[in-house]
Amino acid sequence: MSLPVPHIGRLPAGPRNSITDVAGVRVGHCTLDDGAVQTGVTVIAPHPGNLFTHKLPAAVAVINGFGKSAGLVQLEELGTLETPIALSNTFAVGALLEAQIRHTLRANPECGRSLPTVNPLVLECNDGYLNDLQRMAVQAAHFEAALQALSEEVVQGAVGAGRGMSSFELKGGIGTASRCVVLGKAAQGFTVGALVLSNFGRLPELILAGEPLGAQLAGQGGSDSAPEKGSIIMILATDAPLDARQLKRLATRAGAGLARTGSAYGHGSGDIALAFSTAQQIESEADCVQMALLADHLLDPLFHAAADSVEQAIVHALLAAQTVRGRDGHVRMSLRERLAS
């Protein structure tokens, strides 16, 4: 059984169908593929400048908070993003937090002295089924390698932070997508892009583009009744002029796209969505910040774009991933290989 890549929803995708359809956003991976070490780092750079001095409006929606991320408390309080977004495995958070700080210090030597400290942002999922977490394999050099690999072309599947991730008892990983909308009397065009680190779901519950595909596959090969213990990180970028309050509303709609794929946000699942806008930068030394904002009554198409792009990104992660063998002989078969078997 072969499966073409379905298009989710009615909104058109951007030219790359990727988070990098939002101008200025780039993504880089560093993949660790060595026997029991199946992990990596993915970095999202929201704009090419100095984020510490030119922050972006941002917000987080914690759908289910079973996670060990760094930086979310201050982001929730202040509503700004001031470092790239680093994704990896659970035990890599400490190493990447330090790497983020050192990256900021190189461009801002007075950070932590005459300037405020930085709020490094690191988000994680547990890839321990395929990856030997106890080896603590991810180090600062891997963060730097991901930075060096930043590109508008985003490789998907079992790469970077997604190397060891599992979804629906199959191979998961990195997925990305975008949707375009036209808003208001001036017919302004805007883009919403999503990138997911997909590591959640039980096979019988998988819904792919509205079809109960998981129930069919589980019936063929059986599946245990273990509870949901996975996680997903959902990053939303937009060029629409939104503030932190509006971005939190946008981030919350990522849950709609997640639910459509068959997730009920289980007790042991860490489901976190973060949204940022590239439309206007916030200078750290400014005494007064003035921002042009979309009116709230125009937000509905952006909400649809957020839900559709997240669902599409999850589908892309499943369909792009290849089968991976990891620690102790553990294997996660790709969806395409499972369909072909």
TrEMBL record:
One matching Pfam family: Peptidase_S58
Domain of life (superkingdom): Bacteria
Keywords: Aminopeptidase, Hydrolase, Protease
E.C. code: 3.4.11.-
Family annotation (InterPro entries): ArgJ-like_dom_sf (IPR016117), Peptidase_S58_DmpA (IPR005321)
Gene Ontology MF terms in the entry: aminopeptidase activity
Protein family according to the UniProt entry: Belongs to the peptidase S58 family.
This protein's name: L-aminopeptidase/D-esterase protein
